[in-house]
Amino acid sequence: MTISTATSATAPEPLVPRGLTGVVPPVCTPLTPDLEVDVASLLRLVDFQLDGGVDGLFVLGSSSEVAFLPDRHRAVVVDAVMRHVAGQVPVLVGVIDMTTLRVLDHADRAVRAGCAGIVATAPFYTRTHPAEVELHLRRIAERCDAPLYAYDLPVSVHTKLDPQMILRLAADGVLAGLKDSTGDDAALRDLLVARRDAGLTSFSVLTGSELTVDSALRMGADGVVPGLGNVDPHGYAKLYGHACAGDWEGAGREQERLLRLMRIVQAGSPTRMGRGSSALGAFKTALRLRGVIDHAVTAPPQIPLDDAEVDLVRNTLVATGLL
């Protein structure tokens, strides 16, 4: 990735690299009309990401529709991507599931495939105590010979990870990093300050909030895991490059362009589909319109965009310079 060297007169010092840093998109999982993994489209999407200058890839995350995919689909995705990337960038694999034993099965397969790290949420479906969440993460780390990244996603798993637990597990070497998808910038800043105060310099904190990346990086976050990065990896690489150079004005301009692009996730009418159907359908529709994948199929029971909604995505791509 080419990093801009432009700086403003009042720019602060550039970001200090830590562990995993940069742009690490959660790669969408293209599907065929008969709901199999479209491997050819998946590999084109991976190449599109690599050409866009990303620093890593995250497969089987939320934007990958991990919660909708059967185990055989997960295996196809991991094997295909690991073979294709062949060490060009780190590949993280989501091992997200309801309970520890199920997560361990996914993690074993990911480690055997040669992943650079595994990503796990708190357990879900059943209610869990904070002590059980900590035990869950410790068991995964003990069992699996790969760095473990915690995924804080309370909107989906209905558990907010305790920041003191996160720092404790980081200090104990259990966690290599965190993907923060809480949308709580104040809590993120508090965690970043606490990390610095504790001297946990190798513990990576990546934001999952696509629309406030410039702010998160300025606060000290190490990178971003942007679902919208599927559609425009070049834009997020450019934003991160500006931030690394201390060009916060440039980073802000690119962030605002990406904010306008992110409006595609509102294409689906809330009267007939959920927010997830709208967002994932929009990402895949945009990728199809850009010629990256063959079909905009999402896994059931998600509802596809209709023709008028596809036009909204198309018009937004045109307005933001992507078509």
From TrEMBL:
<dbReference type="InterPro" id="IPR013785">
    <property type="entry name" value="Aldolase_TIM"/>
</dbReference>
<feature type="binding site">
    <location>
        <position position="225"/>
    </location>
    <ligand>
        <name>pyruvate</name>
    </ligand>
</feature>
<feature type="active site" description="Schiff-base intermediate with substrate">
    <location>
        <position position="179"/>
    </location>
</feature>
<dbReference type="GO" id="GO:0044281">
    <property type="term" value="P:small molecule metabolic process"/>
</dbReference>
<dbReference type="GO" id="GO:0008840">
    <property type="term" value="F:4-hydroxy-tetrahydrodipicolinate synthase activity"/>
</dbReference>
<dbReference type="Pfam" id="PF00701">
    <property type="entry name" value="DHDPS"/>
</dbReference>
<keyword id="KW-0456">Lyase</keyword>
<keyword id="KW-0704">Schiff base</keyword>
<dbReference type="InterPro" id="IPR002220">
    <property type="entry name" value="DapA-like"/>
</dbReference>
<dbReference type="InterPro" id="IPR020625">
    <property type="entry name" value="Schiff_base-form_aldolases_AS"/>
</dbReference>
<comment type="similarity">
    <text>Belongs to the DapA family.</text>
</comment>
<feature type="active site" description="Proton donor/acceptor">
    <location>
        <position position="151"/>
    </location>
</feature>
<protein>
    <submittedName>
        <fullName>Dihydrodipicolinate synthase family protein</fullName>
    </submittedName>
</protein>
